[in-house]
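Lecture notes, structural biology module. Today: joint structure prediction for complexes of two components.
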Amino acid sequence: MNFVALRMLTGDRAKYFGLVFAIAFCTFLLENQTSIFANILKRTASQILDVTDAEVWVMDPQTEYWEQTKALKDTDLTRVRGVPEVAWAVRLFKGNPVARTLEGKFAVSFLVGLDDATLAGAPRKMIMGSWERLREPDGVIVDQAGYTLLFPGEPLELGRTLEMNDHRVTIVGISDASAPFVSLPVMHARYSQAVNFLGRERAELSFIIARPAPGIDPKSLTARIEAQTGLRARTTEEFMWDCVNYYLRNTGIPVNFGITIAVALVVGTVVAGQTFYLFTVENLKQFGALKAMGVTNARLVGMILLQAGSVAGLGFALGTGMAATFFEITLHKLATRGIVLMWQCVALTGVCILFVVIVASILSIRRVLILEPAAVFRG
Amino acid sequence: MTTSDLAVACRDVRKHFGGGEARVEALRGVDFSARFGELSFLVGPSGCGKTTLISIVAGLLDRTAGELAVLGSRMDDLSDTERVLFRRRNVGFVFQQYNLLPAFTAAENVAVPLLAAGVGRKEAVARGEELLARLGLGRRTKALPSTLSGGQQQRVALARALVHEPRLVVCDEPTAALDHASGEAVMELLARNAVQPDRAVIVVTHDSRVFRYAHSIARMDDGRIVEVTRPNGSSDPRGLQPVQEAVA
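The predicted structure, tokenised, for the full assembly:
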């Protein structure tokens, strides 16, 4: 009877495609919105995740997330280095200087100051130049999006100059740094220079990044650092989630996206669920005839589930394909770079679609089960 | 006539719907029988209980009271599942509105009872095509119902009712939606192909033009059988046989 079920489903092409596309668009909306939401939140920790050399971040206990830092004392670095099981620890500066071009174009930037000796935390994905060139005097690395923002419409070129806090700096590399939460240029310089590009303060040490000794779990090292120094220590992943959670708690982003996602879910549920339910209701006469002819309720339930599963499977695959295509296209645009279709969002959407289909199936099955086969004689 | 001639035997069958003031007495003590090898007509005005009676006889509806034996089985003795399987094996249906699956070809529609019985699709469709050819639709086996005339659709429905070789065929107003010529053609095919020594055919109709095909005509009114006549002249005033004797 599987053949009968599938032919009943696909017989009316308009209804069939209506069902499939309702689920496909619901899938697309859910995957699209949840992925954009998750990726935007992930951007709040882009500069943390870009530092692949270190696994542990040490900061002032009052520092909650990347954007808002309270400077550490220089002696804190020595204290962290003194913690057993720390393989190495170096300083990292974060500031927001204004960068100006000679043409007068300017932009507030993210400036990351790297340890002069090791350059730990330097961007590893370079488009032009090399991170080792940061050792050159007044050298900075700018990310591609930042370069395009400062020099719109101009080809990528090394050796161009910028002015930061009355300092003339030279672009020695163009990186492919992950996009920050706000669309500002991301720059890297040596620590000693970076603090000058922003303007000296009494304390400038934003973070200490460290790596545990071989065989030591970063999580246990953070506990040891906190116990020994009184500073706040987080693994890279923990610090990323700190940033994400901060934005979730303190901004309207989750509410705005939540509303969109909820609307997509409700509209998708109503449209897909109702369309499938109506499809069953419109076929009640046929189900009644099958019932009269001796098709068992269990077989009818199986037929409905097969119909629902087929529609859901096809619609979900189509919707996921649409979402993947969308993200493949936007992935290559500077403004939306790094925003990808996350497998977690696909899985979550799959669960939602399954829920929608189960609800619609239950309602449809109920109608068929309570249908008296004698009703088929009533015309 | 012997009890083994009887495919269906009802005695004092009653059926009501609803309760209280909304209670409707659809059958008020029906005595009815249908013999193997015959076309038994059930006639009467609309609302007299014909459809309710054949629904009960076909195992689609439970009666409120009375005794019923169909093909040697007491319907009371069958569980719900057994009754479904009983219908699948033993009963063929022809509906007034055909109830063909619109997305299926004529042959596929005919094959549905076989598919329900677990016959493979290829074999089921082949048997459907074969039967359609016998009913004069050999060239329309791959046609969709929407492309067939009313008479042709009813012939497909007739083939569907016969393809699994049931011992009881129940037809509800098979000619009501057809013009005279098409109705005649359908009844002709029904009489020629459905009636067999080991099969009973019950036809509910109020189309008097086709009464001549009947072996017996039971007239219903207000939930009762009021008269049973046999057009060939034999006398059978009530057409009643004790249910106990009809059970094999």
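Point to remember: Residues 3-246 of chain B form a domain with the Rossmann fold fold (CATH 3.40.50.300).
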